[in-house]
What does this fold into?
Amino acid sequence: MTAMRFRQAIVTALSDEMESDERVILFGEDVAAAEGVFKTSEGLFDKFGPVRVRDTPISEMAFTGAAVGAAMMGMRPVIEIMFMEFLGVALDQLVTEGAKMHYLSKGEYTVPMVVRASCGAGLGFGTQHSQTLENWVAATPGLKVIEPSDAQSAYSLLRAAIQDENPVMFLESRILYAERGEVDTSLKMEIGKARVLQEGSDVTVVALGNMVNVARDAIADAKVSADLVDLATLVPWDRETVLNSVKKTGRLIVVEESPWSGGWGSEIISTATTEAFSALKCAPFRITAPDVPVPYNGTLEARYIPSAVHVSAALKAAVESNQVLKPWWITEGVSK
Amino acid sequence: MMTSLERRNALKGNELAWYERMLEIREFERRTNELFAAGLIRGTTHLCVGQEALDIGLATTLNPDDVLAATYRSHGVALAFGLSSHSVMAEIMGKATGCAGGVGGSMHMCDSTVGLLPTSAIIGGGMPIAVGAALAFQVQKKKNVGVALFGDAATNIGAFHESLNLAAIWKLPVIFVIDNNVYGEYTRIDLSTPIEDLHLRAASYAMPSIKVDGMDVYAVQASMQEAVDRARRGDGPTLVEAKTYRFSGHSRADQALYRPAGELEHWQKRDPILLTEQALIKKGILDQAKIEAMKTKIVNLVDSAITQAQADPEPSAKDMFSNVFKEMRK
It folds into this structure.
């Protein structure tokens, strides 16, 4: 076990994969000489050189598509989209080209590529640099989506993503980059397997990325007996683990950082409601951000992100009286 | 039954085979149009009539282990690259025996044995992918090239400019081929683009460019050879602009009524098949009797491909679920 920051876990995973497989190449904006704006490629240019670690122009469409083409020709490219929003100008290449090549070639071509992107609010980057945007990519058959919650899962899942034969979107909660954690570099994690981080009897809390940490704090604060399920992989998500937990606890709360409407948590709730209906003691519900762009002002941004205080209140309402806590903007009367 | 690779290799150094394959493409498109009109094929189709010289020019200068990212105007290029009329027609008909197993359709042809990447139905979609293939060849120290084939209208989309820029700074073995057939969907090029010679855009990326008569298979080969040689030498990308003309409308629904009077007739005098025919007659290797025999052979070949494709099975429901993801070995 080694203590390292989340961003160092990313660097270590990249380095270990590049060392063990010469087909792995890394490119993106400022990933080489500058070692990544979030220092997620520290030392890699020096170690692996300019053929395998490359700075690109600010040209997401070209380099995302270049990853698709290189992957089809036998490489294992990892690209960095500095802020998840920047994928918007390149989405065609990932969603409509990359994710379709295996299908359209009767399986003759494979696209083993990883698109890393930082995401999420909390650092004052404003409306266009703070979204999570999982739902841009989560409804694309042919594309896997991963979002780790700590240094260990960042390390193990990034290695698994690079080894995967398919295109993988790897979302990194930006606010976690500086967080420290213990990492066992021999620990393998499987894509599509949720992590049950703590076990309890009264409620299942499902979360992703940094919301896992918010949920953990909330469970401690509320002093409830909860299963904390870190989904870790959003596509394909681990139905079995979630459903088994919900059948055991009878209650389900999903905590997600994306806006209220159209978020991935609705998918979890929908499946659990249909598949575990008879086990439910309380209506499953989500705690999300409101349907607004991410505000810059620090106080407002803190309110935008689901907080441990709010999740704790929701947990108590559910466990103690089978009540659904409405979103704060409704209870406070600031919005509908 | 020849494989795609055998059909591709059959073109090698055989001018009569180029001519014959051009006839096959023309006849294939004629029949495709008929089948659509008769309601026997669903969806849409984009014919390449008039552009056969470019498809053959590409297929005869590239090696089967080079790769091509082409577009939804895909039937001709697929046939030129070696796919059989049966394989392409079965795909258009959505049959299990089609080159994409029937899940692709008219716009998505593919065959990895001859380097035909799945053709893209997105304008500009294939260019970054060709760049990436070239990046792989460069890293792997292979002598192969990546080629992107796209229409004139694609030179106004961001992917074109981003791809040329990236290819230029990384000096990648990639060739960008503009099939300038004068129309972007229903709009004449002069209404959408302020310059007539699109290859001039390469200058912005300090990239060599070539303008070529896309109706002349020999001219296409010469310019492609120059670009391919440059790429294989490690001297980077080239932008080739082939001046062609789309004899049909954009897609099935388009009767091309917006064409100025006489434009089509003007270009038909430069029909690539006619030009090839004249060249071969002049060389003394083709005569009227041979032409008639070849045409009869091709009509029968395409006809039997259609009959076979029509009789072929539909894909099963299970096939729909195949190849969404590559399964991982445990």
About this structure: Residues 6-20 of chain A form the longest helix (15 residues). Chain A is about 35% helix and 20% strand. Chain A touches chain B through 46 residues (CB under 8 Å). Residues 16 and 159 of chain A are 8 Å apart (CA to CA).
